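Input record, target 12 of the design panel.
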């Protein structure tokens, strides 16, 4: 069963700075990429309208941006005043 899952939802290795928030964001980014790919395929094959596809992808993008903000990815941890 795991082989099928690996085929349908492949995961790539993370090569960046190993910090918990980076790893979580990378997993979120990979999931975003997989879902956008699936939505594009459904739209291309006529299963979703362009408007439905756009709304779905926009929602996924908002979730990814929220994730980045909550995880504070890309922020310098040493620049905080306190």
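The sequence produced for target 12 reads:
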């Amino acid at each position: 069963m795991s082989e099928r899952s690996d085929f349908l939802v492949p995961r790539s290795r993370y090569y960046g700075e190993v910090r918990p928030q980076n790893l979580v964001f990378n997993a979120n980014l990979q999931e975003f990429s997989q879902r956008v790919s699936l939505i594009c395929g459904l739209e291309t094959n006529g299963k979703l309208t362009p408007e439905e596809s756009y709304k779905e992808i926009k929602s996924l993008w908002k979730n990814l941006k929220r994730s980045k903000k909550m995880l504070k990815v890309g922020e310098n941890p040493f620049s905080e005043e306190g």
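Residues 20-44 form the longest helix (25 residues).
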